[in-house]
Specification:
2 strands; two-stranded antiparallel sheet; 2 domains
Length: about 400
């Protein structure tokens, strides 16, 4: 099961980063936030339908049938792949395989330590192996970044404080978001005794409000920039996590309310981050920048999940919870959800680096480019104002800068 899940992840890893790249190249800066919001909304709808469908299938036909249904989606690939745009832009450098291996070792080691520490003890052999893997990976990556002619991570990205802040926000926010998505079903199954279908129903509000939040924040990002939706979403996530901590042992439907708030807050934060990165990074570095952001996104979620279970396991052995409003069952999960508020606060701190302007107002000097690369000069063009009564009448035409790459 573990081996085939790894194989599935290798293929699935291409989808989030490359999907964002295709959308960012197909839409101009003035509408990119909304386009990425639509992508986020489809993910939210899928997240809502998935647990429900999985619950129904497992109740009727057994859990193994779920994998058959999801595998059948591959039959759509020959048809849908024809709709993908073909971009001919290529990177000038070679692929740094050694640096990529170092990055993979670092990630695997970092994830192995908390996962095995909570299961086998913090001095177990696998914890030591994970720590050694992480150290070797970090050392390899640092050496390659310093001396390789074309390192695995573009040096220009690492030198830009705004990009690093955005990547740090993605890591922190996903650490706080993915952990409840995985932890809540475990809590509902073992502490509340819910069936797979009932768990799916409890998780629906979070997925649905995540879709709605992504659409709304995308429109808001296009109009006024990323700071406002990110800060609104972060505050909502803090309220949701505190509520989950306080009521983790109470009615599942109260948990559903706070799970819904969590989804709404995450939707408000997620879309502006991807949209801002796509506007800040230009040219051949865009794919790398968005893919690295996706990697940190899921790495943060994996570490957050591992820490939630590690903390809930050790803290749950004690009497009572750190949250004074909590009472009853699942004291360990209550403490774990309280702990997850820390990365959201960190993300709020990173939000100080976000540009306070809308997408079309980001200056050319702020954009990250490769050495020697120039950004195409915008040439004014005219377009007809939609819904105007007389097409191409002078009063119905506006002049806008063309979108160059």
């Amino acid at each position: 099961m573990l081996v085939v899940r790894i194989i599935q992840a290798v293929g699935g890893a291409a989808v989030p980063g490359l999907g964002m790249v295709l959308v960012s190249r197909a839409y101009g800066p003035e509408s990119r936030g909304m386009a990425l919001g639509v992508i986020a909304a489809t993910i939210g709808v899928g997240s809502a339908a998935g647990p429900l469908l999985g619950g129904v299938l497992s109740e009727l036909m057994g859990w193994r049938f779920i994998f058959f249904v999801t595998a059948s989606v591959a039959l759509t690939i020959p048809f849908t792949i024809k709709a993908l745009p073909k971009f001919e832009q290529r990177s000038a450098g070679s692929l740094d395989l050694i640096g990529g291996i170092g990055l993979g070792l670092m990630v695997a080691g970092i994830l192995l330590v908390p996962a095995e520490g909570s299961r086998s003890g913090w001095t177990s052999d696998w914890v030591i192996v994970g720590a050694v893997m992480a150290a070797v990976g970090v050392g390899t990556l640092v050496v390659r970044q310093a001396f390789a002619s074309s390192p695995f991570i573009h040096r220009e990205l690492l030198r830009n404080a705004k990009y690093l802040a955005l990547a740090g926000m993605s890591f922190s926010v996903m650490a706080a978001n993915l952990a409840p998505l995985i932890g809540l079903p475990v809590l509902l199954a073992f502490s509340h005794g819910l069936s797979s279908l009932e768990i799916g129903l409890v998780m629906v509000p979070g997925a649905a409000l995540s879709a709605a939040g992504g659409l709304l924040s995308g429109r808001l990002t296009d109009r006024s920039g990323a700071k406002i939706p990110v800060r609104i979403g972060s505050m909502v996530m803090l309220v949701a996590l505190f509520g989950l901590s306080a009521y983790s042992g109470s009615s599942p439907w109260i948990i559903a309310i706070f799970a819904g708030l969590m989804g709404a807050g995450f939707g408000f934060v997620n879309t502006p981050l991807a949209a801002t990165i796509s506007r800040l990074v230009s040219g051949e570095m865009l794919a790398s920048a968005l893919s690295m952001n996706s990697m940190l996104f899921f790495l943060g979620g994996s570490i957050g999940t591992a820490l939630l279970f590690a903390f809930s396991t050790t803290s749950g052995l004690a009497d009572g919870s750190l949250n004074p409003l909590h009472s009853g069952l699942a004291a360990g999960f209550s403490d774990g959800f309280l702990l997850l508020m820390i990365p959201v606060v960190i993300a709020l701190g990173f939000s100080l680096a976000l540009p306070a302007v809308s997408s079309r107002e980001i200056s050319e000097e702020e954009k990250i480019t490769m050495p020697g690369e120039t950004i195409a000069e915008a040439v004014p063009v005219q377009r007809w104002i939609p819904n105007c009564s007389v097409p191409w009448h002078p009063e119905c035409v506006e002049t806008i800068p063309a979108i160059g790459d």
